[in-house]
Give the backbone structure.
Amino acid sequence: MSQLEIRLETVEGKVPVTVIHVTGDIDASSHQNLDAKAEEVINGGAKHVVLDLTANTYMSSAGFRSMHKIYTALKGKGEGAGVNLLNPNDEVKRLMKAMGFEAFFPTFSDLKEAVEAF
């Protein structure tokens, strides 16, 4: 298992978008870091978030709970608020489909498209 690293970036599209770049595993031992960072940016006023999973190597059920927490926190932030996913791996996509998550998490393979979708 690899250590989870999180890097933030703000990208200007039609609206300001916070990109949470995730590197490594999101699992029972690391998901709290993602939860805390997402809570920090959302409490700081972010309404549009891209969760960049390009460098995510593994996601356990704890990672999916983190995704759900981010979705739920943004849901109450007004019209157009939400979270888009960037480059989830095939296993994450398969599990998202099995759990019905794909209906709630628009998925993109290009950062610019993910940002412009807001």
Observations:
- Residues 5-116 form a domain with the Transcription Regulator spoIIAA fold (CATH 3.30.750.24).
- The chain has a mean pLDDT of 95.
- Residues 4 and 24 are 5 Å apart (CA to CA).
- The chain is about 35% helix and 30% strand.
